[in-house]
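Our platform keeps sequence and structure together, in a single record for each protein. Such a record has a labelled line for the sequence and another for the backbone structure tokens. Nothing more is needed to write down the fold, since each code stands for a local backbone conformation. For reference, a complete record is included directly beneath this paragraph:
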Amino acid sequence: MGVRKSISSRIFTLFICAIFFSVGLYMWVQQRKVESYVETVGTVKESQVISKSGSKGQMYRPAILYTYEVDGKTYEGNRYAYFETSHSFRSGAKEVVKKYAAGTACKVYYNQEEPGSSVLVKKDGGAGDWVPLIFVVIAAVAAAKTLLGVFLG
């Protein structure tokens, strides 16, 4: 019974590792895609700080609505960065909103294959830049430990 339980728990652990690795890889691929987005000029329509209560208390993030044109067609976007992060303090989100006042011109980066997919910054310097790596490292370490346990007994 102990051996069977041990094998089942190792298979389950490897399954969870595969999920973590897949999520990390997906996030990394998406971030690389954003780096190839093309720049155009857009107009900020609306810019504000929104707040949300959660398990870690009050969190704040910028909510920016903008329009831009590609090949004569107008698109609307609302993504600041592909992987947006929330701020613990209102001032962090407010700094971002200040850069994007309603009615001002802004750089917009869009996907040439899907022009409706856009961001205002390719990298925001927040968690979205390093979280994919954490998912991959956790998965690799846990999988290595599990597999070493199989071979070393």
